[in-house]
Specification:
Length: 215
């Protein structure tokens, strides 16, 4: 009897440790991928621009996301009313980004970043706290700035003269539709779309304290 009780106690402790891990920063990738698919999903609509940057960026990004077991956002169907947005900072071999998720009316955020430049293997995915102004306020600001609706820069006349520098890539998955777009050096362009991307980056920086390529 004593051995049986000891075995049950050990099992319960093990379960408790596992649950604690999943809800810690180290297990944040499990939380982000939780409930990523639904039963009998309808086909996910894909809005992917036919642009030269797309394939090369996501090939490079995949090196990072695989390290933390983060699923491709274009390969999952979220439950109704859930959403996920990924805002990526793209600079040569260094990629970092903010991941915002709303699941069952609960919000969460995580930050994917490289500990060392030019070393994809050094990538980390860490949970970050709620925005200081609250989730409703920050999401209203991001939505108003057009984070879900902006077209890819290739579909506009929005260009800067810089040949390299900083790019912003935005992915979204909502209402069974996946969208992605990119703007390179929007701070140097004059069009309204570029100014909106800069505003989105400023909103994120203010709300979460993230500034481009901080480690």
């Amino acid at each position: 009897m004593t051995k049986t009780r000891t075995g049950v106690l050990t099992l319960l402790v093990g379960i408790g440790v596992t649950i604690a891990f999943l809800y810690s920063g180290k297990g944040v990738n499990h939380l982000l991928n939780a409930a990523a698919t639904v039963q009998n999903p309808r086909e996910l609509r894909l809005d992917i621009p036919d642009a030269r940057w797309e394939s090369s960026f996501f090939e490079t990004l995949e090196e990072r996301t695989k390290k933390v077991n983060l699923a491709s956002l274009r390969a999952v169907v979220l439950p109704d009313h859930d959403l996920e947005v990924r805002f990526w900072y793209d600079h040569f071999e260094t990629i970092s980004g903010l991941i915002i998720r709303r699941s069952s009316e609960k919000w969460s955020a995580a930050y994917l970043h490289q500990v060392h430049d030019n070393q994809p293997s050094s990538v980390k995915l860490e949970s970050i706290g709620a925005p200081k102004s609250g989730w409703d306020a920050i999401w209203t600001r991001l939505s108003s700035a057009g984070i879900l609706t902006l077209p890819d820069a290739s579909k506009t006349k929005c260009k800067s003269d810089a040949l390299d520098g900083l790019g912003y890539v935005v992915e979204s998955n909502l209402d069974r539709e996946y969208r992605v777009y990119r703007y390179g050096n929007p701070q140097l362009a004059e069009c309204d779309e570029a100014k909106r991307v800069v505003l989105i980056e400023e909103i994120i920086a203010d709300a979460f304290g993230l500034h481009r390529f901080q480690h």
